[in-house]
Description:
Layout: E1 4-10, E2 25-29, E3 32-36, E4 51-54, E5 60-62, E6 66-67, E7 77-81, E8 84-91, E9 97-105, E10 110-115, E11 124-125, E12 128-131, E13 135-143, E14 146-155, E15 160-163, E16 178-182, E17 185-192, E18 196-204, E19 209-213, E20 216-217, E21 227-231, E22 234-238, E23 241-243, E24 254-255, E25 259-263, E26 268-273, E27 289-295, E28 298-307, E29 313-322
Parallel strand pairs: 1-26, 6-10, 20-26
Antiparallel strand pairs: 1-29, 2-3, 3-4, 4-5, 7-8, 8-9, 9-10, 11-13, 12-13, 13-14, 14-15, 16-17, 17-18, 18-19, 21-22, 22-25, 23-24, 25-26, 27-28, 28-29
Cofactor: Fe(2+)
InterPro entries: Kelch-typ_b-propeller
Protein name: Kelch repeat-containing protein
Amino acid sequence: MASLQGKWTKLDQKGSGPGARSSHAIALVGHEVYAFGGEFTPRVPVDNKLHVFDLEALTWSVADATGDVPPPRVGVSMAAVGSTIYVFGGRDAAHKELNELYSFDTCTNKWTLLSSADAGPPHRSYHSTAADERHVYIFGGCGVEGRLNDLWAFDVVAQKWIKYPAAGDGCKGRGGPGLVVAQGKIWVVYGFAGMEVDDVHCFDPVHGQWAQVETSGEKPTARSVFSTVGIGKYIIIYGGEVDPSDLGHLGAGKFIGEVYSLDTDTLMWTRWDDGPDLETHPGPRGWCAFAGGWKDGKQGLLVYGGNSPSNDRLDDIYFFTPSLDGIET
């Protein structure tokens, strides 16, 4: 089988941007990237501005936001459905886990608090979020009493939460997993469950059933806090932490910079040839903000910032474009 090819492009940033950070989140709406939250110093939230990067002009701005502006936080997640961005959870400056769900209307620049307290998922940070045309999915993360393995969906049309069956003992509670919607199922990939794990689980929302899937091929090493995107039937992952620091969140663990994909039909992993020796390659990192989207008519993965092997926060932006010509998606 021929190797899968992909290309990284480092994007220029004109003018001053929000700066280096990790444990933040981004979402793409059209040709604009919305960035929120994160830290420069470990566990200290940077700000609560909504920074906007124009993929065409390559310039940063700050949204003139109104409404229920969320307080600063780290370990937050975001997802976009149409022109609306949804922000959930995270951890505040007092290291308190949060569970508010906010929406941000990119047409009106207005924040709205949609749920809090006992409505919706329990408090958490370093969870994962994915979305389809109608739902925003929340899985796992670090809860008040430990790591979680629960799955929720917010129906953006009905404006209500759906609680799905928990994943069960076979899928340990975890932080920093990959979460992707592919072929009508929700996939949980890897994560940190007291140790880096390399299992894959999927949930069928139609039948309400979880299954652990056995994968084959060029299987990636166990990891967490990596970047993830779903393109067609493929789950594509990049980077992540393969060995945590002895200092925990205060230090940098061992990061990796490879790209792999999981074919959700064959359940086979493949490592991509993505030019690891080129200057345009982002290299090893984790705790990045990432999102799937389109640039110059091509679908791919956008990665912004993160933490480096030297424990320095990063401020660069890369776009990964997989060459899927002739590959069924």
